[in-house]
Amino acid sequence: MRIMLDAGPLVTRNISGVQQHARNIVTQWSRQGLLHQFVLLIRQDAAEDSSYDLTFVKNLGAGFSIQFFRPSKRDWLKHEAARLPFLSGLAVDTPDIYHSFSPDISAFSSMPAAAISHTIHDLSCELDPAVRDTPQAVQNRTLYRQAVKKAVCTITVSTRTMDDIISLYGVPRRQVHLVSNGLDPVFTPAPDPEAGRILLDRYGPLGRYVLMVGADIPRRNYARLWDAMLGVWRIQPGLRLIFAGRDPWPAAPVYRLAMQQKDSNRVVFIEAPNDRELAELYRNAQLTCCGSSFEGFGLSVLEAMACGSAVACSHMRSLEALAGNSVVYFAHDDAAMISASILALAQDPEYRRQLRTRALARAALYSWARSAQTLMEIFEQTASARRPAATPPSP
């Protein structure tokens, strides 16, 4: 089978959830010794642009080939804002499957003979009030709606997003498939002394702390979580709060709130921790708190569970499907309830131990190897269903 992949997420230096998902899936395929032929489609300018790095794709092995292309000037102007590939004028053999690891496939709509597949990670552009009216969300809604009509196969990472796609876009259930995110092997309960020493050298002893992971974007709900922590500190003044995220913190609204705190030593901002450092933060936390107003999957919750951290998180369908009864739930818009949930865990080590046992068993159900295998099985079934039936021999 010939599989063409939009390799944009594999070569950009700007790595977020979509890019991590793509790289983990492709890494597993490269390790599984598959006999399929993979063609990685990359814009020619990626080889000339410092914001791209081709190292990952060049090390994938013999089953992966790279196809560079340069769009025409007209198409370049049309798609430059979104930095999308465009196949106009590119001479390639038609693949059995074309797959985009992002929701958008509009740039490849000139491939009618291929079985086009794409991944929708969440529908925040449709359903998150904090995102819906932004210019990017308006553009994304148009792209998503066009894509689900063109694609023969839509992949999603959670049952919540699957149901949303079916109900919002009227997609037949048979065309929507669940491929959950997995876990990097670094996220385990086993301590990492080297990562611990690095954190100690940079930030000093962290003590007892609540960990919150992710950049300060509206759906992270950090303003309400901050209000909840003010209630926690009235009862547990020695419990620290750690924010760990990819983006610079000084520009974040929650950073400004923290700078107004009389005891600024209560709050620590950790910028761009690598996975080993983040795993060590999870392991040593009294608890990890995810108070998001919207989550398509909840990777930080899964990572925390896999590291043995007790978790308190928003009660929403995506997180409930992910974590089951292994976490404490609260209403994301109720600061008093969030405070009570954090205190319940912080003050009760036996409660944390019980959740840790459940969480480790639950997290063991998720792996990138399993996700990659599931996605490949979907590709094989989709391609097989589109092949013409064999003509019986003449009598």
In words, what does this structure look like?
The chain is α/β, with parallel strands linked by helices and 395 residues long. It is built from 17 helices and 13 strands. It folds into two domains: 200 residues, Rossmann fold, CATH 3.40.50.2000; 171 residues, Glycogen Phosphorylase B (Rossmann fold). Helices cover 43% and strands 16% of the residues. α13 crosses α16. It is globular and about 70 Å long.
Please tag this protein with its features.
single chain, 395 residues, alpha/beta, Rossmann fold, 2 domains, seven-stranded parallel sheet, six-stranded parallel sheet, 17 helices, 43% helix
**At the fourth CATH level, what is the homologous superfamily of the largest domain?**
Glycogen Phosphorylase B
Helix/strand order? EHHEHEHEEHHHEHEHEHEHEHEHEHEHHH
CATH domain class name of the largest domain: Alpha Beta
Count the E strands. 13
Which geometry do the CA atoms define?
globular
Largest sheet composition: 7 strands, parallel
Tell me the fraction of residues in β-strands, as a range: 15-25%
Helix proportion range: 40-55%
The whole-number mean of residue pLDDT values reads 89
First-last Cα distance: 31 Å
Could you say how many structural domains there are in total? 2
Question: What is the strand arrangement across the widest sheet?
Answer: 3-2-1-4-5-6-7
Low-confidence stretches: 72-91
Structural class: alpha/beta
Number of helices: 17
